[in-house]
Amino acid sequence: MARVMTRIALAAVLSAIASAATAQTLNTIKTRGVLNCGANGTLAGFGAPDAQGRWTGLDVDFCRAIAAAIFNDANKVKFVPLSSKDRFTALQTGEVDVLVRNTTWTSSRDTTLGLNFTGVNFYDHQAFMVRKALQVKSALELNDAAICVQQGTTTELNLADYFRARKMKLKTVTFASADEAIKAYDSKRCDGYTTDASGIRSEMRKLVNPDEHVILDDVVSKEPLGPAVRQGDDQWFDIVKWVHFAMLTAEEFGVTKANVDEQLKSDIPDLKRLLGSEGKHGEALGLTNDWAYRIIKQVGNYGEVFERNVGQGSPLKLPRGYNALWSKGGLQYAPPIR
Amino acid sequence: MTVATQAAYVASSPIPAIPPPSAHAGVIGWLRANLFSSPFNVALTIVCALLILWIVPSLLRFLLIDAVWTGADRQACLATPEHPEVGACWAFVRDRINFFVYGFYPIDQRWRVDVFFAALAFGVGWLTWLDAPRRDICLIYFFAVLPIVSFLLLHGTPGGGLPLVETAKWGGVLVTVVVAAVGIVVSLPLGVLLALGRRSEMPAVRLFSVIFIEFVRGVPLITVLFMASVMLPLFLPDTWSPDKLLRALVGVALFSAAYMAEVVRAGLQAIPRGQHEAAMAVGLSYWKAMYLIILPQALKITIPNIVNSAVGLFKDTTLVFIVGIFDLLKTVEAARGDPQWATPVTSTTGYAFVAIFYFLSCYAMSRYARYVEARLAQGDRR
Q1: Residue A265's domain is classified under what CATH number?
Q2: For labelling alongside A144, which of A204, B29, B40, B350 has CA 20 to 30 A away?
Q3: What is the pTM of this model?
Q4: Structure ipTM
């Protein structure tokens, strides 16, 4: 299957490269009247439907922000649910304009698939969960431990790499689905369980007694998740990149969904440039100068979106961690708008 | 002279029949005849009884007795000291049932889906009730009116009226039913044509049918779906990109048509040569002979296999999730990951719900096929 997919992907890459030169993504989207956004569909907090069938999540809101910047209407998005198997092909064939599907930015994906990552909208990492009763403080104490993990994922490979690099002995117990893996961990077949930190918190809620378990601080692997676009259309690449930066800048200057209209009156030059009352930064992108205002007004700044979907305002309650602003000890840093 | 009115040896009323020996009648007789007729059967019966005893009570306990029926979020389905055993979390299914049925369909437009379900149920009921009045109109309704009306109803009418709801917003039971219905309705006539084509004496038609059938049967449905959903847009001009659901529908319909063709061909081959010759002898044209003589007999004997294909197709529709279409199974998968409901039993409950849905649908189909079969076989019994 994987081999077939590689071949299909390869064919798709070739044709994507052939048609990339002519791509005028922004114009196509404007004519179409709707942004096609490749989303996950089954990952709570990032892209999943709620009880009313409304799309919610951090990635989903990022697409809404792009739509708000283009159309002044955050609802002009068509979400295309993609599996991990068909996500890149969908982007290459032009079925979606942007892929925001908790996709890890790696060198091979960036260079060989005919796509470009525009940034990192969520810094994830692979982490371990163990029973509190084990009294383990660090993953380095897990020598000779049995770890439950989902089969055939990069998670499994990272786990092996991590133990090998530290010359520790590892017993992996693999399962076809994350569900089976967590069930096995819960029934004490393993000492530890590993997956991405964002996923561990929601998996934890499937345990019989979540309070008896703890997530270790060790970073098994870096998993920077970000939006991707097709290669060959720099304007579109810039737009998607700067939508993220605008949301970060808004948080940095304390501009929120609620106070953005007040902030319009502010005299601070940075704010004037962000909200479009000074300079022509939006037009330079091919948008209107109030592009960032639209995003904040309709979707919110990065911090608001984060807390609403995966942070304290959500059942996941993820800490900001690496996703805090650079000024607060995190990694989220936006170049200045000027 | 006295008249012997009451001769001792004449019975004036029928002698009541003696009941059969208790070992051969009633419950015991049935048990002896069916369950304990030979040592092998005794062993089988004991093994099956043990299996049932092993599975059914725990299943019932999980699905019904320990199940949680009401609740607002995961708290309801968590084990507590006073309620340590938690069964199926039906509260989760109840909370998400609208999503399972309608998917992303806009809430204020969902009545359209209800109307579609009602129209489809009416059509199926009419079509499957063999003594129903005006079955000729029913055919027109089911194969011509219903598809067009359903499409306009679900997708929206151009130029006002019903607002457009693009197929990306369809989901759940709606998509499952649409894919299965289109697949079954399209594949049967197409399959009959392909089967006739394969037995045709015209080389071009025969070659086309053989190549089509063998090619489609030679690849898995997943590959067909991938081709339809991923490769097709590459071959078509940029300006014309068919709808994602439509592409999957075409893939599923063509795939099942190839299988249906082989099923029908088996039936055609079972009809004795004499039937063809007799039809020709009375001067019927090819199509008339097929329509009046051959196909009615061939389809009758293939009903079990046709239904078998239909049941298989109905379950195969779950594969459309692989190209990102939210059928029932996929909506459940999406909902079970929601941290609001994540508990140790949520996933199991979701899958149990899907299993029950599919079982009831498929069982109803096969029961109906049994009924039709029995009815059509009455002619042979005379």
Answers
A1: 3.40.190.10
A2: A204
A3: 0.83
A4: 0.77
